[in-house]
User: Fold these one by one.
Assistant:
Number 1:
Amino acid sequence: MKLAFNLANIHNNMTGVNPSVGCLVCKKNKILSYGVTGIGGSPHAEYAALVNLKKNNNLDCYVSLEPCHHQGKNPPCTKAIINKKIKNLYYSETDDDPRVQGKGLEFLQNKKIKIRKIDNIYKNCFYKTYNDFNKNFLPKVYAKIATSKNYYSFIKDKPQITNTYSKKLTHILRSEINAILIGVHTHNKDNPLLNCRINGLEQLSPARFIIDPNLKINKNSKLVLSAKKIKTYIFYTNKNKNKINYLKKKNIYLIYLPFDKKNEQNCKEILVTIGLLGYKNVLIEGGYNTIRKFIDHNLIDIFYFFKNDQTISKKMSHSFKNINMILLKKFKNKNKFHQIYLKNNNLTVFKK
Ligand code: AOF
Ligand code: ZN
C-alpha cells in the first residue's frame, strides 16, 4: 500500500481537479502491473494498471483511494476490477466525492470481491485536503506577489522584479493549481495570459477568473483572445449588454455577482462560486486591492512573497510594505508564508 501511495505521489498536483491515485496488481505478493492517475486526470489509476493485464485469477489489487463507480470523464474503475477478476481489493483512503462515497466498494462487495481497508499509511497525506474540499467546497487559496526591495510592485518596462527562477516557480505553481484569480485593473495593466508556460505542462494551465464588476476588461487582451483555448470566467455586477454579448462570443463564462452591503463583490462568495464549479484550489496573483481584500477577510491559506534586491521609484506603484507587515503577524507558520528573496538572479528564502 505504501508503494501505491508513492505511485500516487508521482503525479500529485498534476492531475487537475482529480486526485492522484496509485494502484498495484499483485499475485502471491509479486507485482504484475501498476498504474497512476494520468497527468490532467485521465486515465484513472486502476484502469491504467488493469487495461493491459492478461487473463489471470486470484489477483490482489492495492489502491491508495477507494475505486470509483460512476461514469465521468473516465469509465468506472469497478468495471475494470470485475473484468480482470480481482479477488482481493485493498484500499486506504475514502473518496468523499459525492459520486463515489462507498458506492464502488458496495458494488464490488456484492460481486463477492473481498475488501479490506488499510488505514493511516501516511498521516496528513494529500487526500486530506482533497476530502476537506469535498465537505465544504471551499478551494484552498494561494496568493503570490513580487515587489522591489522597497516593497513596490512591478512597473511596465522598468527593472523586472521577477527573474528566470522566480518565473519558473510561478509557472510550476500555476501548473499545480486549478484556478487563478486577478482583478481587472491588474489584467488591463499587465495584459497577462496567466497560463503555465513550462514545456510539457501547458495542458495543466489553470482556469482563469477575473473580478470585473463594471466589465472594464480590455476587449482585445491576450486573455480574452485565448478564452477559446483556456476556460475563462468573469465575475461581473453591472449589466452592460453589448460587452456581455461580445465576451460571450469570445467563449468567456460570465458570472453575475451582485454587490454586498459594503458595495463590493464579496470575497467569500467568489471563493464559494469557484469551489462549486469544481476548482479545488486557486492562486490569487494580484493586484494590490484584490490581495488586500482577501487578506483582510482571512481567506488566504498560503502566501508567496517574492522580493527583489533592487529599489524602484515609488511613482505609479503600490507599496506592499504594510501587506508584508500584516502577513508577518498573521502567518505564524513559516510553511504558509514563503518569503523569497531574488538576488543576483538567484533565489534565497528569507532568513527571519
Ligand atoms: C479512481 N481512480 O485514479 C481517480 C479517481 O471525471 P472522472 O471520471 O475522472 O471522475 C473524477 C472523480 O473520480 C474524482 O472526483 C474522484 O472522486 C475520482 N478519482 N477515482 O477510482 C483514480 N483519480
Ligand atoms: Zn476510477
Note: The pocket of AOF (ligand 1) is lined by residues 18-19, 21, 37, 41, 44-46, 67-68, 72-74, 77, 95, 97, 100 (CB under 6 Å).
Number 2:
Amino acid sequence: MAVQPIRLFGDPVLTLAAEPVTTFDKELRVLVKDLTDTMVDAPGVGLAATQIGVSLRVFTYDVDETIGHLVNPVIGLFSEEEQDGEEGCLSFPGLAFPTTRRQRVVASGFNMHGDPVTIEGSALLARCIQHEVDHLDGILFIDRLDPDQRKAAMRAIREAEWSGLTPPAVRSSPHATGGLAV
Ligand code: ZN
C-alpha cells in the first residue's frame, strides 16, 4: 500500500491542467498503484493524479466492483441524455451536491503499459469519467453546479472544518464519503 495524502480544495494543484504522460515507465506504474491504493483506502469511486499532487493525465476508478485506470483520457462521445444525482469529491470531504452529467460517455486513452484502451461508461461510471477528466483539466465539480447550488456549495466549503488548512499538511480525510466521493 502506498496511500498518499489527498489534496483538498484550496490547493492550487487542483485548478491546474495536468500534463500528458509521455513515458510509460515504472514511475507511471507506481503512480497508478498509489492512485488505486489511495482511492480504495478513502474509499472513493475515482481519483485523479492531481488529487495526490501529481500533475499528470491519469485517473483511476472503482465502479461496480471493477477497478481500472486510464492514462491521457479523452472523452470522444457524450450522450445527449443527462443524469441527475448527488456528486461528491474526495477533495471536498463530506460534501455532495446535485450535479448534472451526461448519462453515457466513451473515453479513450491508454493503460499503464501504453496499450490503447476504450472505456464505455453509463450512469455512475460515466459520472466518474466526466468528473475525473474534469480534474485533469483543472475543473472541479463545483464549477458544474447551477448558480444556486454553487452558492450553497461555497457556503458549505467555508464552514467545513478542513477549509483553509495548509494543503500539504492535510492527510486523507477521516470523513465518511458515502460511496459518492470521486
Ligand atoms: Zn474529485
Note: The longest strand covers residues 66-78.
